[in-house]
Structures are given as C-alpha cells and as structure tokens.
Amino acid sequence: MSQNLLSENVKAVILAAGKGTRMKSQKPKVLHEIFNKPLVSWVLSACENIGAFENIVIVGHKGEDVQDFINKNHPKSSCVFQREQLGTGHAVSMAKENLKDFNGLVLILNGDIPLITAESLKKFIEFHKSNKSDVTIMSAVFDNPAGYGRIVRDKESNVKEIVEQKDCTPEQNKIQEINTGTYCLDWQKVKRFFDELKNNNSQNEYYVTDIIAWANENAFKTAAYVLENSNESFGINSRPQLAEAFKIMNLRHLNKLMDEGVTIVSPENTEISPETIIGEDTVIFPHTFINGKNEIGKNCKIGPFSHLRGDCTIEDFVKIGNFVELKKSHVKSHTNISHLSYIGDTEVGANVNIGAGTITANYNSMTKAKNKTTIKNGASIGSNAVLVAPVELGENAFIAAGSVITKDVGANALGLTRSPQKEIKNYVK
Ligand code: UD1
Ligand code: CA
Fold this sequence. Notes:
It is built from 8 helices and 37 strands. By secondary structure, the chain is of the alpha/beta class. A 9-stranded parallel beta sheet has the order 12-15-18-21-24-27-32-35-37, with helices on one face. Strands 5-4-1-6-10-7-11 form a 7-stranded mixed beta sheet. It has a 7-stranded parallel beta sheet with strand order 14-17-20-23-26-31-34, with no helix packed on it. Helix 2 links the parallel strand 4 (56-59) and strand 5. It starts with 9 loop residues before the first strand and ends in a 14-residue tail after the last strand. The structure holds uridine-diphosphate-N-acetylglucosamine and calcium ion. Uridine-diphosphate-N-acetylglucosamine (UD1) is lined by residues 15-18, 58, 82, 85-88, 90-91, 110-112, 148-149, 162, 164, 178-181, 207-209, 235.
C-alpha cells in the first residue's frame, strides 16, 4: 500500500495573506520565527519533507516581505498575491491559474502552524488515497474547540459539512472535533468548487470549508482524518502562542534526542533547534541554547551555558564549555573549547586546546567582511588570545596567552605578541 511519496505528485497551497493583527507587529505574522526560522518556513519544510517542493504561498499583508523570504529560502516555491482578503476559499482560488494543468494532489495548509510534521502529512495523504477520497479534511479533537470550525458528521459518521463557530447551532457548538484547516484535494476533480464560491455566511467571506458540503452535494467522496497529536495543528495568533509553540517544538525535539541516546541533564533549561542532530552519549548540560542547523557527534559534552548559533559541525569527543559561543564552525574530534570563548567562521582541527577567553575576530566592521580562521590539528591556544581573521595556525602551533595574532603561525611554532614583563625592584617601598 505505502508507495514512495517522493514520486507522488503533491503540491501545497499555503494560506498566508492574513494580517495577524493580534501579533501587534510591523512584520507579517508568518515571518515571526521559532529557532531562527519563520513560521511559514516550518510549514514549507514539512511539505518538502514529503517530497512537495513546488508549493504556492498565498500572500497579501506585507506580501513582498514574505515573497523575498520564500524566493531566497524555498526557491522552488512561488508566491501569489491576494490583494484583498475575502476569505480562505478566495485565497485558494488565487492559485487556480498556477494549478490549471496540475494533475495531482493539492494540500491546503495555513501558514501559521509550525508544529505540523511531515510524518502526519504523509499519513494524511496515505489515508486520502486508501479511502479513494476526493476531498479529505484533517480534523482534531480538542477539549476546548472554541473558535474553530466544527466537523459535522452524519449517522454513519461520514463527514457532512464544516460549520464555522459563528454559524453553529447550539448543538453544533458542542462538537469537539474541529477543522485544523488542512485539506487534501484531487485537484482536477474538485477545482471547479473554486469557481462556485459563495459568501452567504455570517462573515460574508468565501470559505474553503464549504468544499465538504459542496463535494457531498456533487457526489464526490469526502473523508476526515483525525490528527493523532492534536497540538500539531496549533495555530499562532499572538506572542504568547508563539512562545507556547516554541516550547512544544523544543520539548518534542529534546524527547526525540533523549530517545536516540543523548543525555539532556535538564530539559526545562535547554533549548535545541529541531534542525540539530546529536550523536549517542553526548551530554547537554543546562542553560545551553542551540539554534539553527547543526550536527554534533557522539560522546561530546556541551554546556552548561553554551550558545551554538547555527551551521556548526562538531565531531566526536569534543567539549564545549560554559559561556562559549560558536557560529558557522567545524570542530574536529577530541578538541576542547572549555570556557568563555567566541569561535566564528572557523575550522578547528582535532586535539586542539582552546584556552579560556579566546576570541576569533572574524568580523571587519569597516569592510563588513566575515573572515575565516583555520586552526590545524594539535594546536594549543593560551588564554585570552585574539585571532584576527583571516589567519591560520599550523599543526601543533602554540599561541602564548594574551597574544593578538594577526599573521599566520607555522606548524610547531610559537606565536607570541605579548610585551615582555618588566620587574622594577623595590618599587613599592
Ligand atoms: C479557519 C477555518 C476553520 C478552522 C481554522 C483552523 C475557514 C472559513 N475557517 O478559520 O474552520 O477551524 O481555520 O485554524 O476557513 N487567509 C488568507 N486570506 C484570506 C483569509 C485568510 O490568506 O482571505 C489565511 C490567514 O492568513 C490564515 C488562514 O488563511 O493563515 C486561516 O485564516 P483565518 O482567518 O485565521 O481562519 P480562521 O477563522 O482561523
Ligand atoms: Ca486562524
């Protein structure tokens, strides 16, 4: 049954034109970030992880900003403008021209649900296919369904329609199965719905939710897939919800890492981006913040109080200690960076010892250039050294404490820029 989805013809339409008024922000809602990555980008990544790369993002409010981000970070996806926000159905209809000849499945998702996973989207599509459904809706069961559209089922438990809370009867109001806003459509079969949109509801908007009742009336097959982990459909409307989603995403990843053999000493005090892979028997000590994409090997010790800012590769048996900041760097095995250091844009070899307070001066604020530092295997750097990039330290090079290194140091050489110590006898007397 389970075919390779990667070969399947799936495109997502992601709704992201809304203003996000409750964020109280100059920035469009879907560009607010969790772990350095905008909400809409999390949704797109989930789609890309099931093999859907050419997605369509419907943008409106500050749409140019969203478009800029998409062009740079999801180059196969495109943006379509919805100049006036007349409802979710109207938003999807903006993609009609782009999808005219598309003969596959269209997933519709909201752009503000960063917790959705590729695994759930895969199961959702499998369900749609095994049911031979034409329109499938992803639902979830909530203790408190307030604010959501309700899934109305008939006696045989078939989905009949979706009713928005504002249009609910008191009976329907009690329904706990809600519409997550994620749909799977056999596009060529049901695209006609988007030519027949109506806005006879309490908000006078063109609702995409009407597609269920429409499909039933037009003898198409409909189904509802109940999301196992309902928090995946958690939508962000406000800053507290953004913080809540961050917490959920973090804890989910920490649990996964612990299942895979990583020790997280204090999960309540540790943040690790889901785009960070960590090997077995590595220990993460408290108050460590790991952002962006990173790869950390086995048997490392990270923290307490370490900050990895992304694009770091750390090999096995490495120690990164307290108040160490690392960015865009590769650290080879058995190297120690134990205290109070900044290492950026740096290649660090194996068996290197970096003393307390070592700084790579990688940024030239006049030219705005970021320069590279290379530290070869076995080098040893004394405390409080400044390595002014671009600079290279050869194999087993030794840097004296307190030195400001502006020129390359050869293999096995001592690099020293410290002024000689003077002693003035009986000066105090
Ligand atoms: C929608 C669903 C509701 C569901 C809920 C899940 C409808 C009518 N209702 O309600 O059944 O339970 O999502 O979160 O679809 N958008 C546009 N253009 C528009 C209108 C909206 O792009 O013209 C985008 C918004 O930016 C947002 C998404 O569509 O990302 C959902 O819109 P929103 O107004 O938040 O719908 P809800 O009222 O939450
Ligand atoms: Ca919403």
